[in-house]
């Protein structure tokens, strides 16, 4: 599985780690992903998704139906 949020599409960002002497090495800044079980009311069941913490916060206000429609995913496959 990829390290990507299933609802928002967040993924790793390219960056540099900079030392005290300002030597730079390339590294990745990963998204804060959590595996979360979310209740899907219209499907009347739990859905297990890999979500970023930002998506979990947005889920509380928008709802799973709206966010899934926005992301273009079918919740029947999860």
TrEMBL record:
Protein name per Swiss-Prot or TrEMBL: Large ribosomal subunit protein bL28
Alphabetical list of HAMAP family matching this protein: Ribosomal_bL28 (MF_00373)
Matching Pfam families: Ribosomal_L28
Domain of life: Bacteria
One GO CC annotation: ribosome
UniProt keyword Ribosomal protein present: yes
Originating gene: rpmB
Family to which the UniProt record says this protein belongs: Belongs to the bacterial ribosomal protein bL28 family.
InterPro entries: Ribosomal_bL28, Ribosomal_bL28/bL31-like_sf, Ribosomal_bL28_bact-type, Ribosomal_bL28_sf
SUPFAM superfamilies: L28p-like
Signal peptide: none
Keywords assigned by UniProt, alphabetized: Ribonucleoprotein, Ribosomal protein
Gene3D superfamilies: Ribosomal protein L28/L24 (2.30.170.40)
């Amino acid at each position: 599985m990829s390290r990507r949020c299933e609802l928002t599409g967040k993924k790793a960002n390219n960056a540099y780690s900079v030392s005290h002497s300002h030597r730079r090495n390339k590294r990745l800044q990963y998204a804060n992903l959590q595996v979360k079980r979310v209740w899907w009311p219209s499907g009347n069941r739990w859905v297990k998704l890999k979500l970023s913490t930002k998506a979990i916060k947005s889920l509380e206000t928008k709802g799973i139906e709206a966010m899934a429609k926005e992301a273009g995913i079918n919740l029947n496959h999860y």
